[in-house]
Amino acid sequence: MLWLVVAAVAVVNESSSDIANQVTLVFIAAGAGLVGFVWVRRAWLAGVLIGCTVAVEHVVRVALGVENPDVHLPPGWWSSTSLLILLVPAVIAAYGGVGLRRLASGRRET
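Above: the chain's sequence. Below: its structure in token form.
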């Protein structure tokens, strides 16, 4: 399931739509929450992997020398790595999924 969410985030991020950035963030948060709901003990890992998807995608693009005219970032490595800020909402959403799982089950899981 994790790889499906990562693939969905990567595909949505490639859209040239005006709202692609917002939709990508929604996919990151919803996907991380869903995987966190399922992977209670590894929610942090789901958040990190899903949150890094966009940054890794842009770093690979820079490494391969492929230009993307739709990206509104300064060219280069550092601007692409600034996308690691998306780790924050992904990890928060993953632990939100854990919280929902605990609320739904009515007991504490460890």
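The mean pLDDT is 87.
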